[in-house]
Each structure stands twice: as C-alpha cells, then as structure tokens.
C-alpha cells in the first residue's frame, strides 16, 4: 500500500490469512476513532465516471445491509486512482485458518456453521443479492457464531475488483457454471459453494481434486465426489445426503432455495439428536417435509426441487403395496431393533460425562455448547444426585461464562447497547484491566461480586468477575497503583509523539481521560492528557 491515509482512514496493517495476497487492511477512522477493515481496489485512472457512479451506488446499497451474521459495510470512497470499501472489523479466526489448524471440524460444528451462513444467505437473496465468493476465508468465527464478510453487489463487471486469479483450492469449491462464466453467480451457485464448504469442513478434503487448474476444473465439471459419510463414519447420513444434494452439477437439481436448506438442516439436527435409525431414513426418503398428501407433496417439490420426492413418485414402487416393499420390511425390522436398543441401553452417567469431556477438550465454543445442551444439562436432569452432578454444574457455569463473555465482546466491538448492570460493570472493569490498571480493575470486580453475587440472573458475569479476581491476585496485581500506570502510559504516548505516531499517542490520551476523568486522586495526570489532546487537536489528521 503506497499511502498511509485513504480518505478519513489511517491505514495500519494488512489483514487476512495470506497478507501478501490480500487487499484488505486494518485502518482507523480518524474522526470517529473506530477500527475498520478496508478493502482497496486499484483501477487505471480511477475508472470511468460511469464506473465510479455504479460503485458509489453499490456502497450505498451495501450500507443498508443489516444482519448479525454479515459484516456491516460503512460505505466507500475514492482516493486518486484507488477506490475502497470500509467494513466492520471482525476479529477472529477464519474457517480457512481453523481448517488449516485442525484439518476438519466435527459434524455438529459444521451444522451450526451452516445454519448461521444459510440464514445470512437467505437475507441476501431476499434483497436480490448473492455473495458469489463463499470461500473459507470469507467466514470468520467471532464469539459463538460465524460472520460472513466481503459482501459485494458486483464482483465481475466492475473495475473495482480483486485482480488476483482464483487459486486451485478456490477453483475446487466453485460450481460448474461459474467455471464457464465467472459472472454466472446465482442463489443456486451460493448454495453449491455452501455445500462445498460443508464438504471441506466435514471431510478435510475439497469436493474436486487434481494437480493443476485444468485437472481441478475438469473434476468440478464431471466428477461426483465421494460421499462425506464414507470418509467420516460419524457423519450422519442425513447431513451426508444434504451436502451431496447441494453439490449437484445441475443448478436446477440443487435445493430450490435457502428456505429448503434451512428446513433440511433443522431435520438433520432433529433426526441426528433423536437417534432416528438409518433404516427409517432410507425407507421414508430424505425430505425436510413430511409428505402425507398431494398438497404437501406439491409444497415440498416447490421448496426442494423436482427430485426431492423421487422415492415416493417412482411408479414401480407405487405398484406394490407399501407394506410389502422390501425397504419397508427391512427398515421396520431395523427400526424396531434400534428402538429396542435405545430403550434398553440409554447412556449412563459415566458415558454422558465421557462424551461431554471429549467435546469440552476440543476447545471450541461450538463443541462446548454441544456438550452443555446434549450431555451436561441432560445429565443433571437424569442424575441430579449422581457422582458427576457437581462436575456437570461446574462445566455448565464455564460454558455460560464463555457465552456471556463472547456476547459482551461482540456488543462492545459493534457499539451495541449493554442490556444490564452486570454487562456494564464487567465491561468497565475489563477496560481498566486492559489499560494496565489492575488495582482499579480488582476493586471494580470485587464491587461487582458484592453488588450482584446473590442474583441468579447475573451468575455468569459474577463468575467471570471471580475468575478475573483470582487471576489478578495470582499475578500480584494488588500492588499496582493507578498513578504509576497512568504515568507510564503518558510517557509511552510522549515517545510515540516524538516518533511521529500521533494517532497512537492520541489513543492513549483519550483512554486516560475516559477512564479516570472522575478520579480525583489522579486529576493532575488526567489534566496532562487533556492538555496534550488540546495541543494536538490541529494535528488530528497525522498518521503513523
């Protein structure tokens, strides 16, 4: 990036899993003092007046998008021969980096991810928009949910686009129709790429293979990928069938739309969690809708496409009484055996703890949520006086703390209102701790425990406060002094100012004023920060 300023933005550093290939930068809006992610596009001579007008219309439309699973666009602009779009800065790990680290995800995690993404796609499709580039680096996990980034109105017929050709791994995730025409993206192509990401996440493999772009492209067009359940045995057959349905080569053969996929995902969760037998699935046909009459069949066909009900519509099968069909007879026997086994051998308390521990040890927020909902809470209900009841209650507290902390972090990053006193007090104490003033943070956490400790609705945040108290005390934080911390920060700001890094210095001065404006004991130091801000007000446009 040849410049350090872009309109009202001060450019800091590159973002992305592969910074050398990225055109996205971390930046600060100087006037608002807000961090953003800015995507920069270089166009010869800045583009034609018509192209600039179209790009301005695009960012105007993008600013209207508001969905919790989609990174917000704040707008865009032009600077000499560059154009840019500024998005909400989402801090977290991308799906690509998580897969690089872990190779693949559990099917439960993939199911959770897919449900969030398909809801984001449903919102976009209702706005007559498609994403068109659903790659693993476009999904960032923040808190407990994934967020979709880099939403565009137009990716191809515009000079303001990424000039980098798709990598082999990206080509392997594309639908066949976009290999022929990259601009042929549609809601059905979004669904195919969702299926590609789910396939990659479940199996650790891409649905197409090859050593060169040409080989991979040929594989995308002609090869039917190996089913996920044959690669990962614990993958439920219902999830396997949905993924393969999404990966149909013909767009018309894929699910009719996001509504159908949402229903199918809900059915996958319901059947998998209730342990419905595979034989029952095979005999009834895979459909997110129960088809009991012609009207229901027509609704299902509309949602899921022509082939969704092929099992029921097969004339050869309809010519045989349903109770005499081999699949029904075999399926009935297997189902009865499965129900018999389920009734006689429910999970014991020890087995429930073993499964919960395995999920907790995965260390992801999604796996911990599954541990809580599917094993810990049921364990306490079934074995309230069991030998592991206390352990289960402790683990539930840990998961709820994680949920509360993640939700608060998301609110603070997005400047959303805090809902209650517990969130406000914990956020305030955390701010002191991040600033380095452990003593004041410790006092704030202790006050929080005293004020809210007896109220069950604040239990998660009170437990978080107790955790931080223990951490600070073990680190010897009780000996910290606010005045010493502030003086050290002021000295740091002075050094930064001398080096010409005025924005970084101003951030420190603003923090001092914001945190300690009402603290009489450090009033002289606060006054110093206020004086420095006043002296440098005219230099607010300076940058690192």
From TrEMBL:
InterPro entries: Kinase-like_dom_sf (IPR011009), Prot_kinase_dom (IPR000719). Keywords: ATP-binding, Kinase, Membrane, Nucleotide-binding, Transferase, Transmembrane, Transmembrane helix. It comes from the Bacteria. The chain crosses the membrane at residues 327-345. Its EC number is 2.7.11.1. Gene3D superfamilies: Phosphorylase Kinase, domain 1, Transferase(Phosphotransferase) domain 1. The keyword Transmembrane helix applies. One of its GO terms (molecular function) is protein serine/threonine kinase activity. Residues 1-266 form the Protein kinase domain. The keyword Zinc-finger does not apply. This is Serine/threonine-protein kinase PknA. It comes from Rubripirellula obstinata.
């Amino acid at each position: 990036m040849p410049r350090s300023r872009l309109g009202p933005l001060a450019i800091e550093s590159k973002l992305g899993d592969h910074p050398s290939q990225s055109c996205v930068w971390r930046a600060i809006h100087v006037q608002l003092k807000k961090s953003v992610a800015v995507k920069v596009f270089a166009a010869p001579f800045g583009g034609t007046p018509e192209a600039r007008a179209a790009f301005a219309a695009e960012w105007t439309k993008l600013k209207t998008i508001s969905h919790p699973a989609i990174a917000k666009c704040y707008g865009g602009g032009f600077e000499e021969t560059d154009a840019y779009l500024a998005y909400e800065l989402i801090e977290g790990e991308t799906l690509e980096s998580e897969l690089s680290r872990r190779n693949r995800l559990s099917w439960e995690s993939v199911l959770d991810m897919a449900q969030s993404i398909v809801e984001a796609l449903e919102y976009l499709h209702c706005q007559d928009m498609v994403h068109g580039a659903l790659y693993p680096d476009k999904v960032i996990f923040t808190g407990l949910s994934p967020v979709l980034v880099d939403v565009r109105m137009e990716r191809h017929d515009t000079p303001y686009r990424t000039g980098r050709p798709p990598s082999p791994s990206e080509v392997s995730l594309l639908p066949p129709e976009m290999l022929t025409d990259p601009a042929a993206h549609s809601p059905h192509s979004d669904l195919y790429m969702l299926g590609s990401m789910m396939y990659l996440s479940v199996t650790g493999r891409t649905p197409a293979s090859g050593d060169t772009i040409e080989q991979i492209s040929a594989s995308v067009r002609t090869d039917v990928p190996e089913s996920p359940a044959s690669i990962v045995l614990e993958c439920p057959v219902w999830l396997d069938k949905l993924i393969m349905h999404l990966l149909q080569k013909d767009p018309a053969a894929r699910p009719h739309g996001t509504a159908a996929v949402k229903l199918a995902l809900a059915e996958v969760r319901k059947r998998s969690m209730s342990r419905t037998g595979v034989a029952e699935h095979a005999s009834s046909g895979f459909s997110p809708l129960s088809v009991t009459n012609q009207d229901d069949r027509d609704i299902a066909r509309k949602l899921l496409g022509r082939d969704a009900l092929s099992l029921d519509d097969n004339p050869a099968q309809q010519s045989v009484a349903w109770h005499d069909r081999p699949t029904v007879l075999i399926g009935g026997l297997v189902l009865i055996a499965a129900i018999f086994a389920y009734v006689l051998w429910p999970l014991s308390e020890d087995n429930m703890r073993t499964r919960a521990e395995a999920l907790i040890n995965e260390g992801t927020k999604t796996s911990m949520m599954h541990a809580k909902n599917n094993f810990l809470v049921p364990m306490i209900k079934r074995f309230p006086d069991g030998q592991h009841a206390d352990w289960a209650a402790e683990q539930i507290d840990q998961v709820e703390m994680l949920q509360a902390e993640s939700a608060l972090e998301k609110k603070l990053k997005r400047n959303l209102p805090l809902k209650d006193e517990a969130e406000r007090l914990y956020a305030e104490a955390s701010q002191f701790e991040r600033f380095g003033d452990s003593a004041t943070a410790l006092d704030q956490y202790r006050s929080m425990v005293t004020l809210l400790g007896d109220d069950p609705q604040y239990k998660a945040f009170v437990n978080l406060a107790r955790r931080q108290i223990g951490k600070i005390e073990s680190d010897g934080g009780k000996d910290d002094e606010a005045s010493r911390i502030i003086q050290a920060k002021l000295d740091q700001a002075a050094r930064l100012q001398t080096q010409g890094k005025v924005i970084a210095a101003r951030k420190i001065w603003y923090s001092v004023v914001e945190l300690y404006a009402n603290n009489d004991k450090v009033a002289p130091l606060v006054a110093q920060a206020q004086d420095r801000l006043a002296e440098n007000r005219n230099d607010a446009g300076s940058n690192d």
